[in-house]
Design brief:
Elements (H helix, E strand, L loop, with lengths): L1 H21 L5 E8 L9 E9 L6 E8 L8 E7 L8 E4 L6 E3 L13 E4 L14 E7 L6 H4 L4 E2 L7 E2 L1 E8 L5 E7 L11 H24 L1
Antiparallel strand pairs: 1-2, 1-12, 2-3, 3-8, 4-7, 4-11, 5-8, 6-7, 9-10, 11-12
């Protein structure tokens, strides 16, 4: 009887684990990109990125890129770049609500940072994502997405120390005090293992922030 009880307990445990796996919740998260931390670039850039996995097909994820910048009503999304774990050949874009195009090469304005996947805005800016119109698309992988696809993605590093290394970035136009500037909002996936900048980098960042504040004060005084 004792052996039978142990066997039944083992079967129940395996069944419970299988049930938990079978009914695991699909991936769903939101992360915020902010910037631009460089002293000569516009501040208060905010882009919200949301990702949701299809519960019926775990190879499919739905992405939304929202500009959230009341200070810059004419802001436009020039490029959006992000990194994932697998090679880019394992991912396929579809169902764009705006005619953005997958491209290769460095993200505009990011100091040479090249992300695994990058989307470029359509010609003429007529159909750019703005504060009013979000960018939405579907990304499909050759195998099931797991959270590690995001959190373990290798960050893309900029030549600019202040920008550092990030898993996602957005190049924005029509921002800044006059609406004629551009800048980069940067960030990482929730729960990412992307390390915090080293103390030397943080010192540079702090110095840049002070310099930015002083520059804005001088501009305001001149105005």
């Amino acid at each position: 009887m004792r052996h039978l009880a142990k066997s039944l307990a083992a079967v129940a445990l395996v069944s419970a684990l299988s049930s938990t796996t079978a009914f695991a919740s699909p991936i769903s998260f939101t992360t915020t990109l902010v910037g631009d931390p460089r002293p000569d670039s516009p501040d208060n850039l905010v882009v919200t990125v949301s990702v949701a996995q299809d519960a019926a097909n775990l190879r499919v994820t739905y992405w939304t890129v929202d500009l959230d910048m009341a200070l810059y009503p004419k802001a436009r999304l020039d490029e959006f770049g992000f990194s994932l774990v697998a090679p880019d050949s394992q991912y396929t874009f579809s169902d764009f609500n705006l005619p953005y195009t997958p491209v290769t090469g460095s993200l505009n304005g990011s100091g040479g940072a090249k992300f695994l996947l990058t989307l470029d805005d359509p010609n003429g800016n007529k159909y750019d994502a703005t504060n009013v119109f979000s960018l939405r698309f579907t990304l499909t992988k050759t195998s099931d997405f797991t959270m590690a696809d995001f959190t373990s993605a290798i960050p893309s590093c900029s030549d600019d120390t202040i920008l550092g290394c990030n898993q996602l970035a957005a190049h924005l136009q029509a921002v800044g005090p006059t609406g004629n500037d551009s800048g980069v909002a940067i960030g990482n996936y929730p729960g990412s293992g992307n390390p915090v900048p080293e103390p030397a980098s943080m010192l540079l960042f702090g110095t840049g922030t002070v310099a930015s504040w002083l520059a804005r004060r001088r501009r305001n005084a001149a105005a």
